[in-house]
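ok trying this again, last paste got cut off
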Amino acid sequence: MKMNPSLLVAVLVLGGLASRAKEPLKFKDPFNTLGAAEQTAIAKMPVMEPGSVEIDQPRYVRADQTTVYETPAADGKPSVKLRTGEQVTLIAFAAPPNNDGWQLVEVNRVQFDENGKMAKIRGWVKRTGITENKAQNAQYADMLTLQETQKAGECRERFATQLKRYVGTPYVWGGTGPAKAGVDCSGLVVAALLEARCTRNAPPRVARDQKMLAKPLDPAKLEKGDLIFRGDPAKHVFVYLGEEGGKKKIIEAQQTGTNVEIKDWTPGGADMSYGDLLTPLGATQ
């Protein structure tokens, strides 16, 4: 007996989905922060795909500061906070008893993974945090539209201009803007660079990865827009703004309870290092 070709395809597709639904989630840890017990628990977590029509489909963030978590639990460890309209790709649903509206998504941002390679961020977000409505994406997409510069150094000026607009913004751990939503130290760099629209690639999210990508510099050769890191691996970052009134200036989101501010700065410190992030990101200069 011959089987209808379309029926055969349907059987194969459904069979494939059913088998994948039983496979454990191979969760990547781009932040290299999960302990052995957490890695083991995640590796055993079953994943239930919602169907071939929805898998790998774009979704859009409903509100600023929507949190992506490393595990499908609101009390879990946050990975990154997203901005309104930012696009993510739906990968899977969590299976019961962990479903509770959680969806596994891939974020169009990159980090260095545990092997030192750039990889997109994956994590869990509540179903209510994302939508299929592409209209949500319009403003964010417009912000990312590359604007070609006309002369050398213009990208640095744009970056500095956007940074200064965050003066007075509260420090919020994990925040990447906009100003009303708050930023942390590396989030300030991310937000201002995205809004400057003068690099061909988006910046890494955290200070450690920003340092890994940045071109090392001698502190005597710093230019406006270069980054200053503390720690190895970097645990903090702020941005050099050049000289004003004979004094070197930086802008910094320092810690919880403070606001973004411009300060006088004196080079030095054994734990400090310096880097140009604009060039590796393909600044249009």
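PB: full thing came through this time. The chain has a mean pLDDT of 75.
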